[in-house]
Amino acid sequence: MVNFNSFYGTITMISDFATGQNGEGEGCYKLISVDDGSGGSVNFVVSPTTYFVDHRMVAVGDRVTGYYDGNAPVPLIYPPQYRALVMVKDNPSQNVKVDYFNSQLESSDGMLRLNLSPYTQIVLTNGQSFSKYPANRNLIVIFGPSTMSIPAQTTPYRIIVWC
Q1: Are the C-beta atoms of residues 125 and 162 closer than 8 Å to each other?
Q2: Which residues fall within 8 angstroms of residue 88, CB to CB, at 6 or more apart?
Q3: Considering only CA atoms, which of 152, 158, 110 is closest in space to residue 134?
Q4: pTM
Q5: Which residues contact 9 (CB under 8 A, 6 or more apart)?
Q6: Eight-class DSSP state of 151
Q7: 10-residue block means of pLDDT along the chain (163 residues)?
Q8: Helices H, strands E: what count in the chain?
Q9: Rounded distance, CA 83 to CA 46, Å?
Q10: Helix/strand/coil (H/E/C) assignment for every residue in 107-137
Q11: Dist. CA 102–CA 78, nearest whole Å
Q12: Phi-psi region for residue 54, left (φ > 0), alpha (ψ -120 to 50) or beta?
């Protein structure tokens, strides 16, 4: 199971990231440096399989949240370097939660519970419709307002199932 951790901040640099010896992946991987404004910084390795919510292009100066697997091995360097699984560009009109949701559609950290409606769009990362119940899966949840309770409850606009 993926242990989704996140880091939020401003992009300070985007550069090509070299992989392999003969250049076959040249230009396909990026290194995105993110600073949280209070002394913390992270480098995200972005691959062709990194999912960008809403397929939004990012640039230096954008506020983003990068999600990575907290259980994955990482090199012992500073700043830390993580393989980005999901990248979210800030959008004031929506919230995003990336996590494992159990059979009651409650996130693994117990902070969000989903209430589905007939208008909740449930899709795969490739944009195709997902025909099953989304419980007990890793989900990218896009939502607006939520309750102030613990766990907060919301009716999501869209759920992207991370198969």
Answers
A1: yes
A2: 52, 53, 64, 65, 66, 67, 96, 98
A3: 158
A4: 0.94
A5: 34, 35, 36, 37, 40, 41, 42, 63, 64
A6: S
A7: 95 91 81 96 97 97 98 92 98 96 97 97 97 97 96 98 94
A8: 0, 13
A9: 6
A10: ECCCCEEECCCCCCEEEECCCCECCCCCCCE
A11: 35
A12: left
> According to the model, what pLDDT value does residue 73 have?
92
pLDDT for residue 153: 98
Query: ∠ at Cα 18 (3, 6), nearest 5°?
Result: 20
- Identify which of 54, 141, 53, 162 has the alpha carbon closest to the alpha carbon of residue 98: 141
In angstroms, the CA 134 to CA 161 distance is: 7
Token pair, residue 14, equals 């985007």
List, in order of start, the domains of the chain with CATH numbers.
4-89 (2.40.50.140), 95-162 (no CATH)
